[in-house]
Amino acid sequence: MKATRVLSLLAALVFVGAAARADDVVVPSFKSSTDKETKDFVKKVGTAIVLAARSKPEEIEIDRYEYNKPKPGRHELLIKMTYTGYFSKKVKKRHTATIKVLIDSVDRDKWEVLKIEYKDDNVVSLRRPNEAKIRKLIPRFNE
Fold first, then answer.
1. Taking burial as the number of CB atoms within 10 A of a residue's CB, which of 25, 85, 127, 139 is the most buried?
2. What is the pLDDT of residue 24?
3. Burial level of 3, CB count in 10 A (0-12/13-18/19+)?
Protein backbone atom coordinates (compact mmCIF):
# COMPACT_ATOMS: atom_id res chain seq x y z
CA MET A 1 0.00 0.00 0.00
CA LYS A 2 2.76 2.43 0.98
CA ALA A 3 4.83 1.48 -2.08
CA THR A 4 1.87 2.27 -4.34
CA ARG A 5 1.57 5.78 -2.87
CA VAL A 6 5.29 6.40 -3.28
CA LEU A 7 5.22 5.20 -6.88
CA SER A 8 2.19 7.31 -7.78
CA LEU A 9 3.77 10.37 -6.13
CA LEU A 10 7.00 9.74 -8.04
CA ALA A 11 5.08 9.33 -11.32
CA ALA A 12 3.25 12.61 -10.67
CA LEU A 13 6.52 14.43 -10.04
CA VAL A 14 8.03 13.05 -13.25
CA PHE A 15 4.95 14.12 -15.22
CA VAL A 16 5.02 17.63 -13.74
CA GLY A 17 8.75 17.89 -14.42
CA ALA A 18 8.30 16.87 -18.07
CA ALA A 19 5.47 19.37 -18.52
CA ALA A 20 7.57 22.11 -16.96
CA ARG A 21 10.48 21.37 -19.33
CA ALA A 22 8.17 21.64 -22.35
CA ASP A 23 6.82 24.98 -21.13
CA ASP A 24 10.27 26.37 -20.27
CA VAL A 25 11.09 26.76 -23.97
CA VAL A 26 11.27 30.40 -24.99
CA VAL A 27 8.67 30.89 -27.71
CA PRO A 28 8.93 34.34 -29.31
CA SER A 29 5.80 36.16 -30.44
CA PHE A 30 5.33 37.09 -34.08
CA LYS A 31 2.54 39.51 -33.08
CA SER A 32 4.35 41.65 -30.56
CA SER A 33 7.99 41.36 -31.61
CA THR A 34 9.56 44.19 -33.58
CA ASP A 35 12.70 42.25 -34.52
CA LYS A 36 11.06 39.47 -36.56
CA GLU A 37 13.76 39.50 -39.21
CA THR A 38 16.84 39.28 -36.98
CA LYS A 39 18.95 36.16 -36.63
CA ASP A 40 18.36 35.95 -32.85
CA PHE A 41 14.58 35.95 -33.30
CA VAL A 42 14.72 33.30 -36.04
CA LYS A 43 17.08 31.16 -33.93
CA LYS A 44 14.57 31.22 -31.05
CA VAL A 45 11.77 30.23 -33.47
CA GLY A 46 13.79 27.38 -34.97
CA THR A 47 14.97 26.14 -31.59
CA ALA A 48 11.42 26.08 -30.21
CA ILE A 49 10.24 24.07 -33.23
CA VAL A 50 13.10 21.53 -33.06
CA LEU A 51 12.53 21.08 -29.31
CA ALA A 52 8.84 20.44 -29.97
CA ALA A 53 9.51 18.06 -32.86
CA ARG A 54 12.15 15.86 -31.23
CA SER A 55 12.30 14.43 -27.71
CA LYS A 56 15.92 15.15 -26.72
CA PRO A 57 17.71 17.34 -29.26
CA GLU A 58 20.99 18.86 -28.15
CA GLU A 59 23.42 21.43 -29.55
CA ILE A 60 20.73 23.15 -31.64
CA GLU A 61 22.16 25.74 -34.01
CA ILE A 62 20.84 27.82 -36.88
CA ASP A 63 22.46 27.15 -40.24
CA ARG A 64 20.64 29.69 -42.42
CA TYR A 65 17.29 31.35 -42.91
CA GLU A 66 15.43 33.51 -45.40
CA TYR A 67 12.09 35.21 -45.76
CA ASN A 68 10.14 34.81 -49.00
CA LYS A 69 7.01 36.61 -50.06
CA PRO A 70 4.98 34.07 -52.10
CA LYS A 71 2.02 36.45 -52.50
CA PRO A 72 0.78 39.74 -51.06
CA GLY A 73 -0.03 39.53 -47.37
CA ARG A 74 2.00 36.34 -46.85
CA HIS A 75 5.55 35.58 -45.84
CA GLU A 76 7.38 32.26 -45.67
CA LEU A 77 10.17 31.87 -43.20
CA LEU A 78 12.53 29.10 -44.33
CA ILE A 79 14.94 27.90 -41.65
CA LYS A 80 17.71 25.28 -41.69
CA MET A 81 18.70 24.12 -38.21
CA THR A 82 21.26 21.53 -37.15
CA TYR A 83 21.16 19.46 -33.98
CA THR A 84 22.42 16.25 -32.43
CA GLY A 85 20.14 13.68 -30.89
CA TYR A 86 20.69 11.56 -27.81
CA PHE A 87 22.16 8.63 -29.78
CA SER A 88 23.65 10.58 -32.67
CA LYS A 89 25.69 12.66 -30.21
CA LYS A 90 27.66 9.56 -29.33
CA VAL A 91 28.71 9.03 -32.97
CA LYS A 92 29.09 12.77 -33.58
CA LYS A 93 26.37 12.91 -36.24
CA ARG A 94 24.51 16.17 -36.79
CA HIS A 95 21.00 16.19 -38.19
CA THR A 96 19.55 18.90 -40.41
CA ALA A 97 16.02 20.17 -39.87
CA THR A 98 14.20 22.08 -42.59
CA ILE A 99 11.42 24.29 -41.28
CA LYS A 100 8.89 26.34 -43.24
CA VAL A 101 6.70 28.79 -41.33
CA LEU A 102 3.78 30.27 -43.27
CA ILE A 103 2.92 33.73 -41.93
CA ASP A 104 -0.03 36.07 -42.47
CA SER A 105 1.71 39.44 -42.78
CA VAL A 106 -1.19 41.67 -43.84
CA ASP A 107 -0.75 43.78 -40.69
CA ARG A 108 2.91 44.73 -40.83
CA ASP A 109 3.26 45.01 -37.05
CA LYS A 110 1.24 41.93 -36.02
CA TRP A 111 2.23 38.90 -38.02
CA GLU A 112 0.35 35.66 -37.43
CA VAL A 113 1.70 32.13 -37.92
CA LEU A 114 -0.70 30.03 -39.99
CA LYS A 115 1.20 26.78 -40.50
CA ILE A 116 4.51 25.10 -39.68
CA GLU A 117 6.08 22.39 -41.85
CA TYR A 118 8.95 20.39 -40.34
CA LYS A 119 11.25 17.80 -41.91
CA ASP A 120 14.60 16.42 -40.82
CA ASP A 121 17.08 13.77 -41.85
CA ASN A 122 17.06 11.89 -38.53
CA VAL A 123 16.62 8.25 -39.55
CA VAL A 124 18.27 6.95 -36.38
CA SER A 125 15.23 7.83 -34.28
CA LEU A 126 12.43 5.31 -34.20
CA ARG A 127 9.91 8.10 -33.71
CA ARG A 128 8.73 10.59 -36.25
CA PRO A 129 8.76 14.31 -35.47
CA ASN A 130 5.97 15.19 -33.03
CA GLU A 131 3.48 17.05 -35.26
CA ALA A 132 1.02 17.57 -32.38
CA LYS A 133 3.58 19.50 -30.33
CA ILE A 134 4.54 21.54 -33.39
CA ARG A 135 0.88 22.50 -33.97
CA LYS A 136 0.59 23.51 -30.30
CA LEU A 137 3.35 26.06 -30.87
CA ILE A 138 1.27 28.06 -33.37
CA PRO A 139 -0.96 29.77 -30.76
CA ARG A 140 2.10 30.49 -28.62
CA PHE A 141 3.82 32.17 -31.59
CA ASN A 142 0.66 34.27 -32.06
CA GLU A 143 0.43 35.58 -28.46
1. 85
2. 66
3. exposed
Nearest to 101, CA basis, from 62, 130, 74: 74
b (16+ CB within 10 A) / e for 129-138: beeeebeebe
Which helix (H) or strand (E) segment is 63 a member of?
A: strand 58-68
Q: What are phi and psi of 130, to 5 degrees?
A: -80, 95
Does this model's pTM top 0.90?
A: no
Domains of the chain: 27-141 (3.10.450)
Across 26-30, 108-112, 137-141, which has the greatest mean pLDDT?
A: 137-141
For 29, 37, 67, 107, 123, the CA distances from 73, given in Å and listed in that order, are 18, 16, 13, 8, 36
Q: H or E stretch including 8?
A: helix 2-23
3-class secondary structure, 116: strand
Q: How far apart are CA 46 and CA 41, in angstroms?
A: 9
User: Which amino acid would we find at residue 70?
Assistant: P
